[in-house]
User: Fold these one by one.
Assistant:
Number 1:
Amino acid sequence: MKTLVHTLFCLLILSVFFACKSNKEIPKAAPVVNEVKPAPPWVSSRPNNGFKFIGIGFADKNKSSNYQMEAKKNALYDLSSEIKVDISSNSVLYTVQNNNNFNESFNSLIKLSNSDNIEGYQLIDSYENDKQYWVYYQLDKDEYAKQKAIKKQQIISKAANLINLSFIDEKNQDFSNALKKRIQAFGVLTPYLSEEINFDSQQTNGVKTVFDLTALVQQQLQSIQVVTTKTNAIIKPFQQNYLPLDFKLQLKNKFFLQNFPFNIISDEDRVKVMGNAVTDNQGALQIKINYAEAINGTVGFGLNPDINALMGNDSVGLAGIKILKQFINTSTLKVYANVVPVNIFIKSTENNLTKPTGASIIYDYILQKFNGQEVVITSKPELADYIIEASADTKQDLSSDVLQKSYNVSLAALNINLQLKNNKSNDIIYSTIISEIYGYANSLENAGNNAYQTSKLKSKLSEALFFLKRKIFVY
């Protein structure tokens, strides 16, 4: 029994000893060191491959949270820059080679278009460090040429279909949609305008080339006409609200120009207009006047076909308009209006104790206040835009008897009913009663006559005429 206990005790001592020794022999883990991967050669030295297009791009990590996409975008733009744009002698671009500014913008547009439409490229490698992310793409030149030829033919077919549909619109007298489709056709062809483009004329109603297409657009725009009238439209100066100027537009075939937008430009700085307008279903176009001064003469307005507005949000059509405008002339149509004074008729009745005074004191004062280039005082009420009516009369004041008994003085009160009428609508647009004007004399008749001579009459009438005039003019 003692032997067994002794043996177990020895084993326990040995296990503790080896356990301690084992713990002492476990080595500590070495510290982790982040190794910086060296940059591949293509980062510092651009590869050269005669059979591949190469695109290398990078992005700063600190400047963009989506730096990987930014690097890819830059690499594809770099790749597209390697694709040489060969200018065909039969191409649209060839005709404007002498315009350096246009060539630069056109080539930039081609590169942007290429970077958006390139297919078949491959990611060869990528590299990043703490600050930058780099990518390296390649595109097989033969594969690119093959895919480009296929896509070009698809684009030409799409443009041809649009041209064909435009003739159907034209047959249905839908001028605006016919023009839109032709501009869309030009827009889809934009990436290939440095190359020769030919249509199957049987599918496009005789349109064989892009030049035929631009000539068709030009022909359409030149077919727009203004329906002539015997008299010019009329503008009244300094109005709070101006009547719109009405014009009619048609095509050379005498059909109305429906739902077509225009930019409006005034030839005269003193007549300001709303800058755009659209014809209605009957070809009517309204020019809205914002402000007009009294120039008393004829003013012209330029109507420019607004093909940008015609295309609306059509991104394809809008993309081609800038280039299309190099080959077409959106000729300005001219319309005219006469800026003429406001015609005013003044009717003044001046009585003293219900009897006519035979004078024209109030009439003359109103005439004086409306003396200006913007006004003509007419003697014929039927010709007037506005009619001013002043009805004045005197009567014995309530205090007259007391004054007569006490001081042998009579007191007369003058009242004036003043109103302004729009002669076109017959609406009364201003009305007031001018009172508290008095005259003193030894007789009531003389007191009434004196009331017409007081300074109070002029000050009261002047105040009322100020508000009346503001109903006609806004300076």
Number 2:
Amino acid sequence: MSLELLDKVRRQLAAQSRPGSRDAASGTAEIVRALRASGAAPPDQTSLLRLSEALSGDLIGAGPLQPLLDDPAVTDVVVNGAGGVWADRGDGLRRTDLRLGRADTVRSLACRLAAAAGRRLDAGSPYADVRLPDGTRFHAVLPPIATDGPYLSFRTHRSKAFTLTQLVEADTLTADMADLLLRMIRARLPFLVTGGTGCGKTTLLASLLSNAPADERIVVVEDAAELALDHPHALTLESRPANVEGAGAVDLAALVRQALRMRPDRIVVGECRGAEVVELLGALNTGHEGGAGTLHCNTAADVPARLEALALPHGLPRAGLHAQLVAALRVVVHLKRTGAGRQATEIAVIDSGPSAAGLTVSAAWTRHGPGPSAGILERLLRERTA
């Protein structure tokens, strides 16, 4: 397909008084009209429809990447400029046979996707992080910052959470772990899901919260809306970056404060990364039980240190942080990417250390059965359900 034909159709679409719909069928109809207006329409109807459908991938969706993004097994797609395309189907990034062509073609796709989401992406603003209309999270970096770019990253969006049974079948959880986590949800025990990038934190959190009682009101706070809860009363607040004038930013900490005024039964932070940690801990210690969030962390034992790094710069002293953790946020569910896929490796409990020096994090349950803190977790569950 020639770039000249694409340019002709783009100009006609821009000139049409009625903009193209995001719906695939009506979007194709707009392209058919644009082809006819440009004088490039094939004479027979079959060829016209075939050409319009081919063009729609380049003009409406994510172009040649759209089939990958539509694949339910794919969680991530990355593009390294003209160097190739990689996809993750649960076993890590693997190179695909797909080629996007020259770097300027990749740049054109990136700029179009960013513009469709209302963000600027050009030499003056060479990176963007947006959510596409279908929920896919899209990040792009342009040259010269991206030396051999543009570099594109897509995190696909699942419209419905996995069930715990499906996660057991996928070996993300053992049956015993799933039963224990379900008890935690019903007991409204606050928890963090931790792990590295792409290990399944958001997927597990959505699955767990989908098992909360239907009469509970869940308010989710996220940088980019990714949690797809299968729950009848879940609301999402999404942060907003500053505009080109540097005004209008709304951060996660502000959204947690707003969530507190929305009569929530549970407050959930999609990813703890800054001042919102202070607000979340405060909420969990003032009657808002059952809260949860995710945290990037190499091991469950690193959680206190990671939270210190996030909270201390925002005015919460170390002793105060430790006191709030022991009073409210006691449980950590840790995941890892292994040779067998994404797996929950332990459910751990945060507890006071032997001295005032710090906190301890000890496994209550692993993939092999109970751990040293199994009794502590059982006690916490009994207290919550008494």
Number 3:
Amino acid sequence: MPTGLSQLSQVAAHANLDDEDFVTRVLDNAKRSKEFYYKTLDELSLRYIKSNTNFIIFDTGSDSDYYVLELLKKGILVRGGKEFGMPTWLRVTIGSYEENQLVLELVKRCT
């Protein structure tokens, strides 16, 4: 499962929480990135659920498995909504600006 965490990754995550500058940068990126997603999704008239987390979920309007496979080809791992009973929805963890752009470029091409 893509959500599994190794012990090493947990130790690294804990150490990063002590780095206030890092935490601030991550939180700022998440806020800006979600605003970027929401603006683009609004322009595409796609529904989404606003989030206080490091991910968003939105309705692609078609089978989300297609998006999962296309993004995986580009090295980006996202989750389709079937396991949540939402087969047309896509769950995307906030990434770097470049990763966020790739996700939204694919969504634009496919809608």
